[in-house]
Write a structure and sequence with these properties.
elongated, single chain, about 130 residues
Length: about 130
């Protein structure tokens, strides 16, 4: 099974709450930036999303669908820091400003979850997190 199909199969075999969480992240980091594509921040969010997706596929191909995939969002750390530096330019009452704040919150939560997963991997929890049966 190639890395991309293994990754997709792993996502689809995940618990419903994980799939829903990933859909929220995809909406905020992939779909909404297309609406605001004329803004630099939106283009950076979109590029970071696709770079992270590529990293997730590479990690899946190398290590399997396990907790090391938390490294796939490592690029969200500088992204969040960049967005924090820009958030003051857009009021929270503006839809774009609200979206930036949403991405900061969502991606920060994701990085916290991912950090926990990577620490667990480093401590020896290296089993596949879903069953491919």
């Amino acid at each position: 099974m190639n890395a991309l199909s293994r990754f997709v199969r792993g996502v689809l075999a995940s618990p419903l709450w994980v799939i829903l969480w990933l859909m929220v992240l995809m909406f905020a980091n992939m779909i909404v930036p297309l609406i605001y594509f004329d803004h630099l921040e939106a283009r950076i969010v979109l590029i970071t999303f696709f770079l992270g997706f590529g990293l997730l596929v590479v990690l899946t191909g190398r290590f399997g669908f396990n907790r090391i995939l938390g490294l796939g969002h490592v690029l969200w750390i500088p992204l969040v820091l960049y967005l924090i530096s820009r958030v003051g330019s857009y009021p929270a009452t503006d839809a774009y400003g609200l979206w930036i704040r949403s991405v900061i919150v969502l991606d920060t939560i994701s990085v916290a979850i991912d950090t926990t997963d990577v620490v667990r991997y480093a401590r020896g929890d290296r089993e596949e997190v879903v069953s491919f049966d």
